[in-house]
Structure of DivIVA domain-containing protein:
Amino acid sequence: MKITALDIRQKTFEKSFRGVDKDEVQAFLNTISQQWERLGDENRELRLKLEHAQQDVQKMREVESSLYRTLKTAEDTGNNITEQAQRDAALRVREAQRKPSRRWARPASAPAPWWTRPTSRPRKPWPTCSAK
């Protein structure tokens, strides 16, 4: 049975021989009803605070979940980029080891250096020293 402050105020007692002081009982019931009313208001207020706190907790959990997913995605993306860079670097190393270095190789369209070109003039023998 739910008791309200009004129920406490309106409660009546039967009279009996050598009964209690009616005014004292009424004052006590008034005090109890006031405290009961105050506790009811406090209870409602605390329930509202609890509901707001639960909503805040739910929002924070959603934010936490979103941040976790974002962090996990960033971590996976970073790992993928690192793996791709390592594969690309390994491929470039293998290609560089198979091909001669372009820095030292002469392009096919470039003319041969002057010291390796054939001459159209016949070579003269080197002068020799003759003893006279």
Observations:
- Residues 22-98 form the longest helix (77 residues).
